[in-house]
Amino acid sequence: MSWTDDRVEVLKKMWGEGKSASQIAKELGGVTRNAVIGKVHRLGLSNRSGGASPAKAATAAPKAKPAAKPKAPEKPKAAAPAPESKPAAPVHKPIGRPKLIVTAGQPLPPQPSANEISPEALASVREVEKKAKRLSVMELTERTCKWPVGDPATEDFWFCGLPSQAGKPYCEAHVGVAFQPMSARRDRRR
DNA sequence: CCCTGATTCGC
DNA sequence: GCGAATCAGG
């Protein structure tokens, strides 16, 4: 496959719409997301701006020193908020309501401070339990939060089931309370 | 270990 | 110019 005029057009369009490189690649077919990204860069529209920014990134970067880490300029500020939305939530229907869940009403974003289980974390967990998908054991997959809720000895037991990022057994909120210690974790060599 | 884009470099 | 391999991050 080659970058014909109309294929480039599709690329430009979709990239402008904020589609991911893999999505574009899938749409076009015959190319990988790497190809798409490569093309995007060669076209000089790596910066997802319709043309506002000159994006004249002085890529005069010498390829002699691998030590150089100029880092991408990153998006400064997009006036157009990404309409991107993943309403993949099929809306669950509570078949059996387990008990009453009292809500404090104060979400309070996690605030790293104490190394103990912070009240914020606890609040966060309870908050999450409200939104939990309440999966049974068999409904759990590799990418669902396996945080148990309730008493296994009763019917009042289910797993969180919210999407876990990857590798981790829990969703973000539960990871937060599951792993308190450890903070140094930098660099990862292959 | 799913995904994202960014960069390099042989072709 | 192309894009796989790699890198760096979420």
UniProtKB/TrEMBL annotation:
Protein name: GcrA cell cycle regulator
Ranges of compositional bias, category Low complexity: 52-70, 78-90
Domain of life, per lineage: Bacteria
One Pfam family from the record: GcrA
The species this protein was found in: Litoreibacter albidus
Region feature Disordered, mapped onto this chain: 44-117
